[in-house]
Amino acid sequence: MRRPVGSVKTGFAAAPGSGMAFCMDSNTSSPAASPSIPDLIGQAWRLAAQAALPGLPWLALLALMGGFYKWALTTGAGGTMLALAALVVFFLAGVQASLMIYRAMIPDAKGAFMALMHMNLAIYLAFFFIGFFVFFFVGIFGVVMLQLSGLVDLAAEGADQQIPAALAGMMSTPYGWALSIVYAAGLGGLAFLALRLLMAGAATVQTGRVMVFRTWRWTKGDVVRFGAASLATHVLPFLVGYVVNLVIVNAAGQGEIAVFATGVSGLLLQVPFILAGHGLAVAALRAMHPPASVA
């Protein structure tokens, strides 16, 4: 349960039909108890259903751009420049789809395309640099564990051909367990970062200002609660979509048309994940009652 906060000088408008008001009077104490995990999940999926129709054309465009990017990257047609161009268009389509989904979920949203694009770029860069250093360390640790295991001499000639078999054999030993723990810790750190930044996109669209680490303090003490809710809004729908598309990929083969089609289907099957993920961000934003005038 979140402790009540002192008076707040501004607030958000109530969301029609949401059962939760954003508005807080300047002289009243803040909010009632934060919603439970089931309440967050329920709100997220209700918001997902609310945004499904307005977001559908943009999600369809995103899926088409995803299929084009996968085709350009897999086939190499057009070279590196075409693949990069396809990636840029895919990113821009994703920002627009996200913006339209948030606008359907948030009444009187002030955010525009450029603010949301800048927010996304900032978060992607943060994850890139943090992820690079995390997995660089994990890779170095894995090399050390592999050498200490004695299953392969990394300095010997032809050692690179023995590494896959040696790595597979090492995973059932204490060296492999140590590597698994370090790898899990790295993934856990990135998941923690993602949950602390859960509301950044929703807050950016709500306020009209680029909000990245400004939302950090709003999620303090709620990572476990948001993480548990995300199992039903992020993890489960993503895994279901991924597994179903994996079956489609295996059935379709590796022809150029199949590559494009499975790129499209892969994104379409992630529509529930995308909608519910945005829904959880908005539900969390409402629950925390952050002031709209945060600098």
UniProtKB/TrEMBL annotation:
Q: Does the keyword GTP-binding apply?
A: no
Please indicate which superkingdom the organism of origin belongs to: Bacteria
Membrane-spanning residues? 47-69, 81-102, 123-146, 177-205, 226-251, 257-285
Alphabetically list the UniProt keywords: Membrane, Transmembrane, Transmembrane helix
Q: What protein name applies here?
A: Glycerophosphoryl diester phosphodiesterase membrane domain-containing protein
- List the source organism: Hyphomonas adhaerens MHS-3
